[in-house]
Design a protein that fits this description.
about 120 residues; alpha+beta; Glutaredoxin; four-stranded mixed β-sheet
Length: about 120
């Protein structure tokens, strides 16, 4: 089963969800802006994906652009706490599946994941 963590207003998320839907692959999608993560939940997702909070930090977000220097000095625990408060700090989409994880829309990796999920 493929898990997709998205923001419905995000163009990259809509592309990823479209590819998943059109493929017929079994997947669960969650808009984490509508259904926020708890701290433990996000920590668990990142651990399963073998990612750190820094790996999924969105440097394009308004929060990062306004507080970038401060954010670069934070440890993983502090960064994770801030991501719970400010979900725009998470790069999106975040997709987990049998071949690992994908951060951001990556058509080729997503197609590989879909094939692997169907096997």
């Amino acid at each position: 089963m493929i898990e997709a963590y998205i923001y419905s207003s995000c163009t990259s998320c809509r592309k990823t969800e479209s590819v998943l839907r059109d493929s017929g692959a079994a997947y669960d999608a969650r808009d984490y802006f509508k259904h926020r993560f708890s701290r433990d939940e996000l920590a668990g997702i990142l651990a399963r994906a073998n990612l750190t909070p820094r790996d999924v930090l969105s440097k394009r977000s308004k929060v990062y652009k306004s507080r970038g220097e401060e954010l670069e000095t934070l440890g993983d625990d502090e960064l994770l706490d801030l991501m719970i408060q400010e979900p725009t700090l998470l790069r999106r989409p975040l997709v987990l599946g049998p071949t690992g994880s994908i951060v951001g829309h990556d058509q080729a990796k997503l197609e590989e994941m879909i094939v692997a999920a169907g096997e």
